[in-house]
Design a protein that fits this description.
mainly alpha
């Protein structure tokens, strides 16, 4: 995650003083140039001024916290784990963790937190970049760890099909594309549904990136995308619903508005966009509450509101002094951790819950998943990302070269 600074103005350089006089042949040209310069200065003055800010290490930390929330929820907070005789713990998890399971029931909110952070980070990392650079960065960030996770989970479920069943070969092979939901195929691991939302966000955001990111364009994008997402469900047009992504759009929009606050400073319009995203997100939060069947809307609303306020504080600079570099490493582990923790972890609990203390088991599984995530990051993501970046950059260079006659 790297911020690319860009000049906000686009001002034209003024003409040298005394180069033309009112009686010279070039006087009209000079006057026109001065007028254009004054106009550009006026327009630049009306634009929000960009501010140079340090790397936001705290965002990396929040990403890991969100991932840990989701993991704890999956291990000890789901409705399935609360069922009598469930294949994970063998009995209701509330009997094993009477104090922790009521808290873990709200860990699913980590996904919504992810979406907000993703809107913030994607806008930050893509500012000033070309669409091809954005495409390459997303491929090398998403696919190497994902391919390993798909293969790892498929092997685990094939060897131990007790909690979850493995997919057919044609299904898990299609999962390698990350487009399985669009093709109507099941996921190798249930947590991969969030990747479909992320991919659609990247696609629609690429449209505004193609013309160059500015404060105005991102604001217009937030308003336009939000308007389409708000009416897509009633349109009866499946393709529009797919691209509008109404189930996640308002979380991404909140992240975009927060990044504009971070880059340009707060203003009433950005607060209105953030407030509207909070209002519109309530439908999706309620839907998630009903789907999870373990939490309440009121507490979920409070937690999401607190998170947005925390993100707003970060956007306004209150966390700029947090410069713990180890948080960058923690952030790099978040994605592979999210991909590998669920199915394999639930399977391990099935076999070990009667042999290991429950608290130690959950802590050990989280630690093991973090270690595996570091191994994936160090020995798969890094080398494979470099290879893919070089190859894709070469492909785009060839595509940009006129064909030889």
């Amino acid at each position: 995650m790297q911020q690319v600074e860009q000049r906000a103005g686009g001002d034209r350089a003024p003409q040298p003083a005394g180069a033309e006089t009112s009686d010279s042949p070039g006087a009209n040209t000079a006057a026109t140039a001065n007028t254009n310069t004054a106009t550009a200065d006026s327009e630049a003055a009306r634009r929000p001024a960009e501010r140079r800010r340090p790397r936001l290490y705290v965002i990396d930390g929040l990403r890991l916290v969100a991932a840990l929330m989701v993991a704890v929820h999956h291990y000890i907070g789901t409705a399935r784990a609360e069922e009598s005789g469930n294949p994970i713990w063998g009995r209701p998890v509330s009997e094993i963790f009477p104090n922790l399971s009521p808290v873990a029931e709200y860990g699913w909110l980590g996904v919504e937190f992810f979406f907000v952070i993703s809107g913030f980070v994607i806008c930050m990392s893509s500012w000033g970049k070309r669409p091809r650079d954005f495409f390459v960065s997303r491929v090398i960030r998403l696919y190497p760890a994902y391919w390993i996770a798909v293969l790892f989970t498929t092997v685990v479920l094939t060897l131990f099909p007790v909690v979850f069943q493995p997919l057919e070969p044609t299904q898990w092979i299609l999962n390698l594309s990350m487009l399985q939901e669009g093709a109507g195929m099941p996921h190798v691991d249930g947590v991969y549904w969030t990747l479909w939302s992320e991919l659609r966000f990247y696609l629609v955001f690429l449209l505004v990136m193609a013309t160059g990111l500015t404060y105005r364009k991102v604001v217009v994008f937030c308003c336009g995308w939000g308007a389409v997402a708000a009416v897509a469900a009633k349109s009866g047009i499946p393709l529009l619903v797919t691209f509008a992504n109404p189930e996640s759009a308002w979380f991404f929009i909140a992240g975009l508005a927060l990044y504009l606050m971070y880059r340009f400073g707060q203003d009433l319009l950005l607060w209105c966009i953030l407030g509207l995203s909070w209002v519109m997100a309530q439908k999706e939060i309620m839907g998630r509450v009903q789907f999870e069947s373990v939490s309440t809307w009121g507490v979920s609303l409070v937690l999401y509101t607190v998170f947005l306020l925390l993100m707003a504080a970060i956007a306004l600079g209150f966390a700029d002094r947090i410069r713990w570099k180890w948080l960058a490493t923690a952030g790099s582990l978040t994605y592979p951790f999210y991909l590998v923790h669920y199915s394999a972890g639930a399977t391990a609990i099935h076999y070990l819950h009667d042999k290991v203390d429950a608290r130690l088991l959950v802590a050990g599984l989280i630690a093991a998943a973090l270690v595996l995530s570091w191994l994936i990051h160090r020995f798969v993501e890094r080398p494979l990302s470099g290879f893919l970046k070089k190859g894709l950059t070469g492909v785009f260079s060839r595509l940009g070269t006129p064909a030889e006659r």
